[in-house]
Amino acid sequence: MIRLFEQHQIRKIKELDGIWDFSPEGDLAMYQLPVPGCWEQHPNFSTYRGKGTYRKTIVITEPSTLRLEFKGVSHTAYVYFDGELIAHHYNAFTPFSTIIKQVQKGTHEIKVLVDNGFGEYSALHIPNDYYTYGGITRPVSLACISDTYIKQIKFTPSFEDGVWYGKLDVVIHNTTSKLGRFSFVSTIDHYEMSFNDVEVLGDSETTVTIKQQFPDITPWSHKNPKLYSIHTILSSNGNAIDDLIERVGFRTVNVIGTKLQVNGEHVFLKGFNRHEDYATVGCAIPLPLMVHDMDLMQDMGVNALRTCHYPNDEIFLDLCDERGILVWEENHARGLLLEDMQNPNFDKQCEDCNREMVENHYNHPCVIIWGILNECASETKEGRLKYQKQYEQIKNMDTSRPTTSATCRHFTDISLDLPDIVSFNMYSGWYKDVPVKERNEEEIEWIKNSGGDDKPIIVSELGAAAIYGYRDRTRCKWSEERQADIIEENLKVYMNDEHITGVFVWQFADCRVTEEGPWFATRARCHNNKGVVDEYRRPKIAYDIVKNLFLDKK
């Protein structure tokens, strides 16, 4: 499944989900693995780190130009078509596609060399407090396209003088060497937005922009998540040759002083940090388990989620669109020291991740905040320059959403003036046995005096660890009782502080961590055990504590 809705009525598209041949590097044996899936699901590869090759045979029934899209390969992919390298991509959490021109009918082979190893070539995927799985972990699709096709549409709503507007950017890609002339029409509800003479040079792209009023639409909000379909049809000489359907919502996001507003109304974010990780399937979470996660979180009264620490599967974002969950989506860079950020590949790999995150998830109304660089070296001059560069990159792509970054550089961060929203991670009562209220007051005062004055403040992480089923009347650390006590005390302070506009509990579910690096030494079971449910989604005592407090907060 690519999306939760149909994206094409004209373009012919085939999902390549199913069983692919697989062989690890240096092994002549051939295995059968599911796609999407993590190779760790197979008993022979439960801890395998390295390279492996996937193979799939396809049949093309008539000559055509093809568009091959991968929603996620972890973490590096080299894609071959009939033995020829056609694409290379780094980062497990962002999609990529490639065009294969004038493919003849017959049988063809797709081969994908996948690498989930660590090394200098990988600046972002490093031994970390979550697991780097291997495989083709998200859906794959193959489309037969016209030589000129709709590459992307971007929809930007705005509310001006009491009227809703929509700005539509349509990107058209001409794969031939000749100039072409085209027209298109985009339908939203009973409105049409059209352009009758689009000129696209050979081997190039053209972006056409249209803006118009939508006086009688229903806004999207977390209370009423009204969605609209935009169906764009591209024509040549009066004949429809391609189409693309996207879902959008009419909503605005603004920062007004210390408040965050959606559609002009103040919102207080009550949410979880959620890793894409499940005990039996790793990061390749199927739709029924995504829905189960969503049901559990909404049962606890959430209105928001943070996609720590990478862009999420777009199917999950579709669910958030449908259910009105406000999303802080984050790029992929977590806990990097300055020496990590000075990796020669860091800037380029972050730039690519930011671009692919914003371009591919731009139309989701649920995404209200772009986040970058969780707990990186924001206390250094060199680190600050990298934060500034990435904020500027995102703002150049999207001015309709605020930006933020979660810091743990307490009292040393020199980058708090850069984002629109200041966010901090604080584990009072867990890592340090300090009074929550006093520690929070010190933090707020420091933020005000360090560039964060008159900005919204979010507590982006709070929590404690517990082993599911471990109960102790003394309420010792690692017991469910101690975890529940710490979360309750923290939430009561933060949710009643007028300076704070949102809280995200760390975390929704226990997740696997890598044994390489330092993390396993402080993570019992080689898991980050701070979930209010375990890796099988069995609730701990803290589940009901969070539920009662979130549901009471209006």
Automatic annotation (TrEMBL):
Q: Name one GO biological process term.
A: glucuronoside catabolic process
- Where is each Glycoside hydrolase family 2 immunoglobulin-like beta-sandwich domain found? 148-251
Write down the SUPFAM superfamilies for this protein, in alphabetical order: (Trans)glycosidases, beta-Galactosidase/glucuronidase domain, Galactose-binding domain-like
- Keywords linked to the UniProt accession: Glycosidase, Hydrolase
Mind listing the GO molecular function terms for this protein? beta-glucuronidase activity; carbohydrate binding
Can the keyword Membrane be found in this entry's annotation?
no
Do the record's keywords include Hydrolase? yes
User: Per its UniProt record, what InterPro entries does this chain match?
Assistant: Beta-gal/glucu_dom_sf, Galactose-bd-like_sf, GH, Glyco_hydro_2, Glyco_hydro_2_cat, Glyco_hydro_2_CS, Ig-like_fold, Ig-like_GH2
Question: What are the Glycoside hydrolase family 2 catalytic domain coordinates in residue numbering?
Answer: 254-548
Give the Enzyme Commission number. 3.2.1.31
The entry assigns this protein to a family as follows: Belongs to the glycosyl hydrolase 2 family.
What is this protein's name? Beta-glucuronidase
Organism whose genome encodes this protein: Lachnoclostridium phytofermentans
